[in-house]
Amino acid sequence: MKENKIRKFHIETYGCQMNFSDSEIVASILTSQGFEASDELLNADIILLNTCSIREHAEDRVRKRLHYFRSLKKKNPGLTIGLLGCMAERTKTALMEEEQLLDLIAGPDSYRHLPALLAQAESGQKAIDTILSSDETYADISPVRLETNGVSAFISIMRGCENFCSYCVVPYARGQERSRDPQSVIREAKDIFLQGYREVTLLGQNVNSYQWKDGGETVNFPLLLEKIAALDIRLRVRFATSHPKDLSAELIGTIASHPNICKAIHLPVQSGSNTVLDKMNRKYTREEYLEKIKAIRSQIPDCTISTDIITGFCDETEEDHRQTLELMKEAAFDYAFMFKYSERPQTIAADQYDDNVPADIKERRLREIIELQQELSSSSNHRDLGETFEVLIEGISKRSNTQYFGRNSQNKVLVFPVTVQNRGEYVNVKVKRVTSATLIGDAV
Ligand code: SAH
Ligand code: SF4
Ligand code: F3S
């Protein structure tokens, strides 16, 4: 290794928005220690893979990537390769032993130690740190914004999860739930606003259970939202994800009463059957879920609601599946992420239940769910025909340089001819045509 050479690192990220946000923290920690970020994989001295374990497929992608990195390392033996994130945490040293390629392994709470771990790896010793913390929130670290459009940014407000949904690996990969000091969240939001950002998404596995106690004051999630929304009316606030069991009337009221808190709620239901929900350890019933949907629809009539659905969970019957389809219709979801159940090692389901829905049935149920959601999403878009929305301009459309694209408060993408306004500014757009994914309109 050459002395005094600035070491270039490249981070590749998989998984959820929280992982992308973590990569920005990693970039900040490394650049503050004299490393330089590189967009170019092939230019880097250090490649870091920030990984996801949520489904088997997510881990398969990482393994494929590692195989490709093996060929790079053959050509450049000085290359340091590190595994970060949830798969690093879940598999600990197993991949290092299996793949004989990794120099470094760091779990999600170990990123402050990366400079020391890299030094160790570069001296020829394998470096491993997968200790989870009960209080690490990286609150004092200003993330280096990667792959940014300069308009919207993500801020992690809590880490970990203790809900232990029986299918889910996150509590094992990310550890105890902890909230971040609200002052540091507000400071970060203020900072990005001053840098020109106009939209912030507050992130956590279950943002509704955000809570910070400081002396006599308790800041819960609605209060934190309110404080961020109060910074400037031109700053839009979004958040993800909400767990249905903790979605309170107070939160619905807060969203309804602040024009710059976006009218879009992501509320993963997972299944429409009480038997399955119980087995999943979701802690709500289909009836309770639908009550919450009703409350949202009546108090925030222009709110979109999106969801996550898992099909083919252990012992799921045709009747359970039918109830999921029924619930989807009743909730009239505007958008959904839909998955086949994938058994994850360590989880309660892997331990106690049989992954007994055959692959072809999972496949067929997923197809039915996707087809229904396509109809629901299309009706949702058609309801917007002729409506006018305030759109935050994100940039020039990929398809045509005479068109802008941006989002409305409801998180739908709108495409419209370039206006006098610029990226990061608001414009009213009237919808005149819809496709399955986009609203097309004109500035008015
Ligand atoms: N904290 C969020 C979800 C995080 S994971 C919440 O509780 O809603 C994102 C989504 O991945 C989940 O909502 C679920 O639909 C899906 N998912 C999680 N574990 C899965 C598994 N083992 N198989 C298939 N999908 C899974
Ligand atoms: Fe996983 Fe459930 Fe936690 Fe979401 S709430 S991350 S699904 S354990
Ligand atoms: Fe994946 Fe970890 Fe996020 S498992 S979904 S990267 S919290």
Notes on the protein architecture:
This protein is α/β, with parallel strands linked by helices and 444 residues long. Among the domains are: 8-129, 3-Layer(aba) Sandwich (Rossmann fold); 388-443, Nucleic acid-binding proteins (OB fold (Dihydrolipoamide Acetyltransferase, E2P), Beta Barrel). It is 35% helix and 23% strand. It is built from 14 helices and 21 strands. The strands form six sheets. A six-stranded parallel sheet has the order 2-1-3-4-5-6, with helices on both faces. Strands 17-18-19-21-20 form a five-stranded mixed β-barrel. Strands 7-10-13 form a three-stranded parallel sheet, sandwiched between helices. Strand 3 (46-51), helix 2 (56-75) and strand 4 form a beta-alpha-beta unit. The radius of gyration is 23 Å and the shape is globular. Residues 15-16, 18-19, 52-54, 85-86, 169-170, 173-174 line the site of FE3-S4 cluster. FE3-S4 cluster binds at residues 15-16, 18-19, 52-54, 85-86, 169-170, 173-174.
